[in-house]
Amino acid sequence: MIALAQREPFSEITIARLGRELGVVPSLIHYFLRSRDDMMSLVLNHALKELAELLPPLSGVWRADAEAHLRQAYETLLKWRGITSYMAEQNKYRIFQNVLPGEVDFGLVFYDRMGRIFQTGGFTAEDSARAYHLLMHFLTSITRADVLKLEPAAQRETLRTHVDQFPVSDYPGARFLIEAFTNLDSKRTFESGLTLLLDGFERWRAQSI
Prior knowledge:
Blueprint: H1 2-7, H2 15-22, H3 26-33, H4 36-54, H5 62-79, H6 81-89, H7 106-120, H8 125-147, H9 156-164, H10 172-181, H11 186-208
């Protein structure tokens, strides 16, 4: 189940499919996991646990901590490709997980860490909430584009061929953009976007101090 979630869209992993992969009847999986929702949350929590274990200790320097946490989240989501595509399309269990009593919700662990980063940095609760929400949208979008090969670099030949069939004089802006645009991959986009977002958050912070 874990291996499937790392390479395939989670929406395609059914109880019946899992039973075939494991060589057991679906009813046995239902007995232990109760439902597909429980299976989904279990796998998500496993991935988030891996993320939590790789996060560095908080230093108290908000920007350094935010960068470190977001970069680790980026790397983890690229590894868990099936989960990344699921999280980009579904709302359920995107933040918190449905864990059994006594178990740790690692989605809550990450959410709490991000909250503490902004709180320690002197942000207001309102600005912290907006910053977290924007960062999660950005992270989900970038990793989904990588997993589904939607980044310009993955479409390089198709995009360049399309622009090249028209005279430069008809679409000078497109010709101006196309080469640099089709060199963009998820890593470059992530680094540029993260810098822009954190620069903007720094301005919010300065206005509230």
